[in-house]
Design brief:
It is a single chain. The chain has 8 helices and 11 strands. A 6-stranded mixed beta sheet has the order 2-3-1-4-11-5. A 5-stranded mixed beta sheet has the order 8-7-9-6-10. Strand 2 and strand 3 form a beta hairpin. The radius of gyration is 19 Å and the shape is elongated. It starts with a strand and ends in a 5-residue tail after the last helix.
């Protein structure tokens, strides 16, 4: 049996839909289910839904054979001791520096206050610009930070830009293309090649 850890949310829903379209049957799965572990009807594939930052941990520690997670998480938290097997081409988005619309001059401040769920990525970006920053790590709605005066700008994922626009914000610089990646435990990659290949083919991904 192949055990896959999926990042909860859009990635999990997309992959589960592809699996079901490819003939896999998960009797207990639905998009609204609160269950976190699902096994297909024939006992060939187990899927566990976890928070994005935990996917690589599950795979690295052998609690799952493989996982699917956004590249942003792999860059921020590192992907040591796992194989990044494939860019799946789903969940496409960009990492961007954003702030209040029409106030891009704030980027010229001597020391910029930056709010982000991705402090590592943010720090590296501003270091490349030789821009001193004070970084505040947030785990919730980072869009609020410029609006309430907590930060000058934010570093966060942008997909359509709707959330930014609805909150009076705009992207100042989109600096990194992102998508979902298939990662694999190093031992499982050697021992479960056929199962992994079938999973990739069923989902319509190309290696």
């Amino acid at each position: 049996m192949l055990h896959i850890a999926l990042a909860k949310g859009r990635i999990a829903k997309t992959v589960m839909a592809r699996l079901q379209a490819g003939g896999w049957k998960f009797p207990e799965y639905s998009d609204d289910s609160r269950k976190l572990i699902f096994t297909d009807a024939e006992g060939r594939l187990k899927v566990t839904l976890v928070k994005s930052p935990d996917v690589a941990v599950y795979v690295r520690r052998g609690a799952a054979d493989a996982g699917i997670v956004g590249k942003d998480i792999l860059i921020e938290d590192g992907a040591a001791d796992v194989y990044e097997v494939l860019d799946l081409g789903i969940g496409k988005c960009r990492m961007a520096v954003s702030g209040i619309k029409g106030r891009q001059d704030v980027m010229k401040k001597r020391i910029l206050t930056v709010a982000s769920k991705y402090p590592g990525i943010a720090r590296k970006y501003f270091a490349s610009r030789f821009q001193p920053v004070d970084i505040i790590q947030l785990n919730g709605s980072v869009e609020l930070a410029p609006l309430v005066g907590l930060a000058d700008v934010i570093v966060d994922i942008v997909e359509t830009g709707t959330t930014l626009r609805e909150n009076g914000l705009e992207a100042y610089d989109e600096f990194m293309e992102l998508s979902a990646r298939l990662i694999c435990n190093k031992v499982s990659y050697k021992m479960k090649q056929e199962e992994l290949k079938k999973f990739i083919e069923t989902c319509g991904f190309k290696k």
